[in-house]
Amino acid sequence: MSDEQHRKETLPSKPQAGVCLHITSLPGLYGIGEIGDAACAFVDAMADMELRVWQILPTGPTAYGDSPYQPLSTFAGNELLVDTASLIRAGLLTSNEADALLSLPAHTVDYGALIPRKKALLERAAGRFEAQATAELKADFDRFVERHDRAWLHDYALFRVLKSRHGERAWPEWDPAFVHREERALRGVEAKAARQIENIKVVQFLFHRQWQRLREYASERRVLLFGDMPICIALDSADAWADREMLCIDADGRPERVAGVPPDYFSQDGQLWGNPLYDWRAHAANGYRWWIERLRRAADLTDFVRIDHFRGFEAYWSVPFEAATARIGEWQPGPGDAVFDAMREALGHLPIIAEDLGVITPEVDALRDRHRIPGMKVLQFEVSYEGFDVDKVEENCVCYTGTHDNDTTVGWFRGSPDDNRRPDEIARTREAVIEVTGGSAETIHDDLTRLAFSTRARLAIAPLQDFLGLGSEARLNTPGTSGKNWRWRMESEQLTPSRRAAIAEMVADAGRSGPG
Hints:
- The structure is a single chain.
- This protein has about 525 residues and is an alpha/beta fold.
- The protein has 21 helices and 12 strands.
- The strands form 2 sheets. It has an 8-stranded parallel β-sheet with strand order 9-6-3-2-1-12-11-10.
- Helix 16 (about 380) links the parallel strand 10 and strand 11 (about 395-400).
- Helix 7 (about 135-165) crosses helix 10 (about 195-220) and helix 13 crosses helix 14.
- The chain is globular.
- Residues about 1-5 have low confidence and may be disordered.
């Protein structure tokens, strides 16, 4: 590692404040948060509030369960986030056609109703691209395809076509010819579904173009975009189907062991993710090519990125495929320094934040520190520990009130039906947080936010729900559950001028205002 590479830091040089808000949670007319006008308006609101970092969750295409952490592709964008108004302005949709989305609720994402309607609109828009798009737009599309087609775009489009033809089943359940990627079978589908494949590529281009506009706008307003990358990939993904030699699965796509974490704060049985495990020897043999391209793609979209479950690079929890819970498992060694050395050598810098929560060993800390990768501190976990000292929160980290996996601060303080703490534990937490913050039950969301802002951490972040003082009804995700996650949306009137001014005052009082 050169001295210059070692000195280059991921976090802003000046202490900054930020907000965590999933793109799907933005307000808007069309049933889900989108990456167009509403996203740019939120950037404007952030600038008003002196919040200079917007943390988003993964933006890949989602499937069953709607989780952004189980995307159908590492490299593709979530088509549901494509901005509808932009398609109308481009002449690819009419406002009357988009009216099909207007009856969807504004306060929540109703995925069951949204997906078929928006999918039909996107197919219609893509089908008009050749006739309606400008020459400039078509040239941009050609450049997009030239850059990404061989790397991931064509395999993704073919994967989505085949998945549709197999009733959206996971690829190991497809016809064997497609499971095994037999050349003749694939070429036959490419010939018969050429228009469908092209339309999928067009929609990916529209996502990419809109995202680049958002990123440029954020840069103009001096707001940084902070992305999120799951360490694991889903078995039911284009990546696993097209590049299976990087995974510990057999020729039919069956894993012997899968990923998870042992019992922890979130779950007595641990978390059984079910993701396939990486064949780290295969990654090492090709110089970690796939990881380099993965980080390069992340850098195309955001200024820096959090890697979820960073500890898996040092050691990962391996669970038998047949296990009912993650209680039965064992730690296996990860790639360690080698993957980070390879990414830095190729890219010159590691724009990475480590999600280093949970069972963290000295070896994990040492791996993170050797590469100068910032870690995380979550005050909901920290403040009730005996001996907690806000002055011990290190500078090279991101300090949070809570994350997308936590209840909101108000909900956590009060205790909710989903809370796995005993009543006496909740009561002790309330006493501890009021003692540490010097605040009150009525102002706990602001009190904990001020505490995060008061630390030495160069970046302090609160979820938007905490800035708004919302309770458990606004919780985005409860780990280990399904069916009601990833649905919460803010409503534009919630972020009032007076609330914006109060947030800006908190940021200024903490010495975190102004771009870093």
